[in-house]
Prior knowledge:
Layout: H1 4-12, E1 28-30, H2 58-70, E2 75-77, H3 90-100, E3 105-107, H4 117-125
Parallel strand pairs: 1-2, 2-3
Helix pairs in contact: 2-3
Amino acid sequence: xxxxxxxxxxxxxxxxxxxxxxxxxxxxxxxxxxxxxxxxxxxxxxxxxxxxxxxxxxxxxxxxxxxxxxxxxxxxxxxxxxxxxxxxxxxxxxxxxxxxxxxxxxxxxxxxxxxxxxxxxxxxxxxxxx
Length: 130
């Protein structure tokens, strides 16, 4: 267990921007494009949460992506609990974030079931890369 002095010293060593009533905008955020998932893993909260199993409207995604980039967010994750590869407009979302909004880094996590060589080649052809 740390002493109170050690804990106070650690807090005092935080950069001043983090010791304010309005903390800075995070450098990395996640936007869930879809709440749908093709698995029901016992360890995942996706299927236990009471929510609509649908995709986010494009208009909401594009507005959020644009506004967050304008605030200084540098990394955009296009996933959360849902499986992003189920979203029909995933490639367009990545392309929009990279080309239109200027995110240096766009990423996702997947269960991999739909990440076939053909699907990945098609996605690259459709412009996943900047």
